[in-house]
Design brief:
The chain has 599 residues and is an alpha/beta fold. The protein is built from 24 helices and 19 strands. A 7-stranded mixed sheet has the order 4-8-9-10-5-6-7. The structure holds zinc ion. Zinc ion binds next to loops. Zinc ion (ZN) binds next to loops.
Length: 599
């Protein structure tokens, strides 16, 4: 590695020219105008002279190139900051790293650098492994700094290359949260309870850069946490008090990740802030409570549903995040195969009848129900939903929340709704015989009823309805179709690699390889910072779409339930298993994930 050079625009131009990204003329122009570009970038970032002095900001050659490409060349070259840093790392024989704050040991980061130090030098200490400190930077030529640091901390240092945007973002997130927690810790050193007044139910989340250090530190720390959790598309936040610390975990794509811890002394204040936001009784700490928080983020409203539970070391809080973008999706984009999609949309076009969505808890049934109903919204129809609880308010539906305390059960609400001239009714969940009877009755009397039911596959739904006391003849008359569904994690595209599975493994899928083929090619994620080493990024759904054909109707009326599955397959139904194996064959998901979810 040639460290005599400096990380200059001329070095970067060489790298980009060698890689065939830019032409010689651009390269010459860049080098010729270096100081001019540098000052233009600085003026763009900090318009006034005062701001420029205060910022102590050194413009990097990558920032200069990106600015020049965008402003002067009208984005002639399509190359991202990350890709530029990859080329720089390659040229210097160094390792490039895509930063993710979950991968960074926050206690290490804050131990070896202050927020200002990290920001000015654009570095982020990441973690210590075998007595070596790993540091990310966007300036790999900063030898003086690293030598100095090495002497100071008496530890070897390995420098990794990352983008400046990532580094500054993470420095803000980590240090922002930790600084708030530290300051709050001082404030709350002797105080266990604190009055938090003027709490509104709608809070505007500040972007990380806007949070002012003069604000209440605890308020800031909570804001950082909520912003971070929603940015990460988490479904739940867990705050768990232990003896010394309080552990903060996020559920992302169905899996919990520990992301932070706060000192136990701070836990009560942290929880009080959240309870205040959710309009709970702050002084009541012995009884479990429920509440809601609405937050505004990037022009959309996100609903948080919070519950508290007294445990040995204090109140544990779980916050479920209801993001409208995840609950209301386009049906076409939800993972249906074309045939199944076509079949399912014919169910939705029926003027009346019963459509059931089945699957275990957390299989995405609510998303399917909401997204289906959304396609039916029209000025000419009255859509009523009965839910427990209402997961997401949508103004085009008339939504009723079940409330057993006042005897407003699913069954009772359904009876009332029928007097309200509905066209389409959604029943959150059919749990008992009375609700099942009422839903069938509604379907019989000219309404389209969508409901969810807790069964494992689509075909066993008929059995379940009979168990709930429904006459098979009525099932045959009203049931239009059933969907069974599961959520399955998608392989992370950033670390996707081949994985050959042998014939025993193929056998576990209920399949057989031809004798001349010893292996089946599948894919898996190896784990990388973007997917938090899980190998998965995001989820998709798999479906089994079961249509109640004339033949099936006859089987139901004859109570010949054993034959239903076979005939459905003859009718062309693809089972959950078949559709999961198809996702495996297409490289969408991994072998292990298919086994875990379906088999
Ligand atoms: Zn990955």
């Amino acid at each position: 590695m040639n460290k005599k050079e400096d990380f200059s625009l001329s070095f970067l131009s060489n790298v980009l020219t060698e890689a065939g990204i830019i032409d010689d003329k651009t390269s010459q122009n860049l080098v010729f105008s270096e100081s001019k570009i540098s000052s233009r970038v600085l003026t763009t970032l900090f318009p006034t002279a005062q701001e420029r002095t205060n910022a102590k900001y050194s413009v990097s050659p990558v920032e200069m190139f990106l600015w020049y490409n965008k402003i002067t060349l009208n984005s002639k070259y399509e190359i991202s900051e990350d890709d530029i840093m990859k080329l720089v790392a390659k040229k210097l024989n160094m390792q490039y790293v895509k930063l993710d704050s979950l991968q960074i040991d926050t206690s290490i980061a804050t131990k070896y650098a202050s927020r200002n130090f990290a920001r000015i030098h654009s570095i982020c200490p990441m973690y210590v492994k075998e007595n070596i400190l790993y540091i990310a930077t966007d300036n790999p030529f900063n030898d003086a700094l690293f030598n100095d640091l090495k002497l100071r901390i008496k530890m070897e240092i390995t420098v990794l290359v990352a983008s400046k945007t990532d580094i500054l973002k993470i420095v803000n997130e980590i240090f922002g949260f930790n600084v708030s927690v530290k300051k709050a810790e001082l404030d709350y050193a002797d105080v266990t309870t604190q009055k938090l007044n003027n709490l509104e139910s709608l809070f505007t989340l500040k972007s990380v850069s806007e949070i002012d250090s003069n604000d209440k530190h605890i308020v800031n720390a909570v804001d950082y946490l909520l912003t971070y959790a929603t940015n990460q598309k988490s479904s739940d936040i867990h705050i768990e008090p232990k003896r010394e610390i309080s552990k903060i975990r996020l559920r992302i794509d169905g899996v919990l990740h520990t992301i932070q811890s706060i000192p136990a002394t701070l836990h009560p204040a942290f929880i009080s802030r959240l309870k205040g936001m959710a309009r709970m009784d702050i002084s009541e700490k012995r009884k479990p409570q429920d509440g809601r928080i609405k937050i505004q983020k990037d022009d959309k409203e996100i609903e948080l549903r919070m519950s508290t539970l007294p445990t040995a070391f204090g109140e544990k809080v779980v916050i479920r995040i209801f993001d409208p973008e995840l609950l209301f999706q386009n049906l076409e984009d939800m993972g249906f195969y074309p045939d199944d999609y076509a079949k399912y949309t014919t169910f939705l076009r029926k003027p009346n009848g019963l459509i059931l969505i089945t699957g275990p808890t957390g299989s995405g049934k609510t998303t399917t129900l909401y997204s289906s109903l959304k396609t039916l919204v029209d000025e000419t129809v009255n859509i009523v939903t009965i839910e427990d609880p209402i997961e997401m308010i949508y103004e085009h539906f008339n939504q009723v929340a079940v409330n057993p305390k006042i005897d407003l059960t699913f069954a009772a609400a359904l009876r009332t709704i029928l007097r309200q001239d509905p066209d389409i009714i959604m029943v959150g969940e059919i749990r008992d015989s009375e609700t099942a009877q009422n839903a069938i009755q509604a379907a019989l009397t000219g309404h389209l009823v969508l409901a969810s039911l807790h069964t494992n596959d689509s075909v066993s739904t008929v059995d379940r309805l009979v168990d709930l006391g429904i006459d098979p003849f009525l099932i045959a008359t009203t049931l239009v179709g059933v969907i069974a569904q599961r959520l399955i994690r998608k392989i992370c595209p950033h670390c996707k690699t081949e994985r050959l599975i042998d014939k025993e493994e193929v056998g576990l899928l209920g399949l057989k390889l031809p004798p001349e083929k010893p292996h089946l090619k599948t894919f898996k994620g190896e784990g990388c910072p973007i997917c938090r080493q899980t190998g998965f990024l995001g989820r998709t759904a798999i479906y089994e779409v079961f249509e109640i054909s004339i033949k099936i109707k006859h089987l139901i009326i004859e109570r010949n339930f054993q034959e239903i599955g076979k005939v459905a397959k003859m009718d062309g139904m693809k089972t959950l298993k078949e559709n999961a194996v198809k996702k495996l064959a297409l490289g969408t998901t991994s072998y292990e994930e298919v086994l875990k979810v379906i088999f």
